[in-house]
Specification:
Strand content: 15-25%
Strand order of the largest sheet: 10-9-14-16-17
Radius of gyration: 29 Å
Helix content: 25-40%
Largest sheet: 5 strands, antiparallel
Structural class: alpha+beta
Number of helices: 15
Length: 551
DNA sequence: CAGTGAGCGAGCTTCCGCTTGACTT
């Protein structure tokens, strides 16, 4: 029989690690938590120091029995659950439930699944960290008390089957408040002027450096451009650069799969899970952007041989951690970075492609660009047109990957857009000057993925709960994902062409929404009720502090 | 006399966070 039993949280991880450790080690999985608070009111004794009552859940009874037997046969049990608050608690629950002997029990941690990291962890065992376990218990107990005290109030006052909780109720609040903001929003119009000139036989479009608040001012400007001479006053070229983005965490993967592939957050997680179980990617529930040394080295070799030395820029992404991040795992990356594609189901192929590109590009050089601004004057007015061009002088990471953008107007930000040749003092023939009435836009409604982003910024929820939280608020009927057709809106166009000014009214479609989150009537009623009577629990900081203070 | 409807009581719902399958649709 084996001398050593190692217990980890995930069975896929167990399989990998067993391969690293050899025949003296058996590696088993706890499949997450093995115990939880009991179901009823006796689960927390509020009268007696909030004493929790834990039970092994029915679907874990068989597993606990097996682990107990395995532990009995082993000389040493290694508790190798994740290096975070929940992982520490799982180790403690295992020690209690399996009745492990302290002298034959060791706690080890590692945040990457490489042979080197595992062997190093085995050399440096420690004890279970009681403070971290207590932090987890406080978090668990508080979530139970909040959820199970508030929800019944909603059953009595509003409707049976409703729910409230530290995380979900704040998620609903965010959606409701954004909707109110949008309802109250009054669009403001201004006039933006664009001139089109001819240089080197090419058309150059250049926006004016001033916007006009009223149609009168805009019309006056366009009128005064009749017969004006347009001269190139200055040309300035500035080098800039763009940095690649960090490899994926759960939340950035969900956002990018939503933008680029149109996936819901649950679809992203389902597909990522299947890639993980096939051994193709690292763990998909993580808040860390760290890469293992092995992965960085592998990326460096791949990039150097595929694109050349100057495309490689090995680096670790630190410093912009999400609030409350615990970094028990690596970033999400391909297990083998030299494998640039996978086969199989279409969703898996596409998500793998995204993960590979993001990980590889994170280890590539900055892109170098040159931004050129030509100032084109108007002889009759003090304002000037600003023609902007951009040339990519070295593509760097852009060769592989460019992060998506939530804002449609920024779409061309990274395109090559070269200005035609011009010289200072040159007079440019003018084709047209057009002043267009533009309306300001309200803050966008949330998508599933942008709500996850917001929750993460606020430090609310964890990688394993973003997708379930999004589905809970929809299942309860607080929030609906839906589309809205736009409504037509008129706007004015003032055009100067061939020294003649014309004014026309055009129509645009505004307010089109696709796959956005809308609060329902019941969502609004529940939110307002909770805000009125339990405002402390609805506070963003309260709910985030529960997570932050316990680490 | 049998079926109907009003009224009453009992039992249920619910949290967050860690993991996969085992179930339907």
């Amino acid at each position: 029989m084996s001398k050593n039993l190692v217990i980890v949280e995930s069975p896929a991880k167990a399989k990998t690690i067993e391969g690293y450790l050899g025949k003296d080690f058996v590696v088993k999985s706890s499949y997450g938590h093995i115990r939880d608070l009991s179901k009823g009111n006796e689960s927390v004794n509020v009268e007696d120091g909030f004493e929790p009552n834990y039970v092994v859940s029915d679907d874990k009874k068989q597993l606990v029995k097996e682990l107990k037997q395995a532990a009995k046969k082993a000389e040493i049990v290694w508790l190798a659950t994740d290096e975070d608050r929940e992982g520490e608690a799982i180790s403690w629950h295992l020690a209690e439930t399996l009745q492990l002997k302290p002298e034959a029990t060791k706690r080890i941690v590692f945040s990457e699944i490489t042979k080197k990291a595992i062997l190093k962890a085995i050399e440096r065992p420690r004890d279970v960290d009681v403070n971290l376990v207590n932090a987890q218990q406080a978090r668990r107990i508080l979530d139970r008390l909040v959820g199970f005290d508030l929800s019944p109030v909603l059953w009595r006052k509003i409707k049976p089957g409703l729910s409230a909780g530290r995380v979900q109720s704040v998620a609903v609040r965010i959606i409701v408040e954004r909707e109110r903001e949008i309802t109250l929003f009054k669009p403001k119009a201004d006039f933006r002027v664009v001139g089109e000139f001819v240089a080197d036989k090419m058309g150059v479009k250049a926006p004016l450096n001033k916007r006009f608040g009223t149609e009168e001012e805009a019309t006056a400007f366009v009128n005064e451009c009749i017969g004006a001479v347009h001269t190139v006053d200055s040309i300035e070229t500035k080098p800039t650069s763009r940095k690649p983005t960090a490899p994926f965490t759960t939340s950035t993967l969900q956002q990018e799969a939503s933008r680029k592939l149109g996936f819901s957050v649950s679809r992203t997680m389902r597909v990522a899970q299947s890639l993980y179980e096939s051994g193709l990617i690292t763990y998909m529930r993580t808040d860390s952007t760290n890469l293992s040394d092995d992965a960085i080295e592998q990326a460096k070799n791949f990039i150097t041989s595929a694109f050349g030395d100057h495309y490689s820029n090995p680096q670790q992404y630190r410093g912009k951690k999400a609030k409350g991040a615990q970094e028990a795992h690596e970033a999400i990356r391909p297990s083998d970075l030299t494998q640039n594609a996978t086969t199989g189901e279409r969703d898996q192929v596409r998500l793998y492609d995204l993960i590979w590109k993001r990980a590889i590009s994170s280890q590539m050089a900055n892109a170098k660009l040159e931004n050129t601004t030509a100032v084109i004057s108007v002889s009759t007015r003090p304002e000037a047109f600003m023609a902007k061009g951009q040339v990519i002088t070295f593509d760097g990471f852009l060769k592989v990957y460019l992060e998506g953008n939530d804002d449609d107007e920024d779409k061309d930000k990274d395109k090559d857009n070269r200005l035609p040749a011009m010289t200072i003092g040159q007079e440019l023939p003018r084709k047209t000057i057009v002043a267009t009435e533009r309306f300001s836009k309200h803050a966008p409604r949330f998508t599933e993925a942008s709500l996850v982003k917001r929750l993460e910024e606020l430090g609310i929820g964890r990688p394993s709960t973003y997708a379930p939280t999004i589905s809970t608020v929809q299942k309860r009927g607080y929030v609906e994902k839906g589309d809205r057709d736009g409504t037509p809106r008129n706007f004015q166009l003032i055009t100067l062409e061939k020294e003649t000014v014309s004014i026309s009214t055009e129509t645009e479609n505004t307010g089109v929404e696709r796959s956005k989150l809308f609060p329902t009537d019941i969502g609004i009623v529940v939110n307002d009720f909770l805000m009125q009577h339990f405002d402390q629990i609805m506070d963003f900081n309260f709910t985030a502090d529960v997570e932050a203070n316990s680490t």
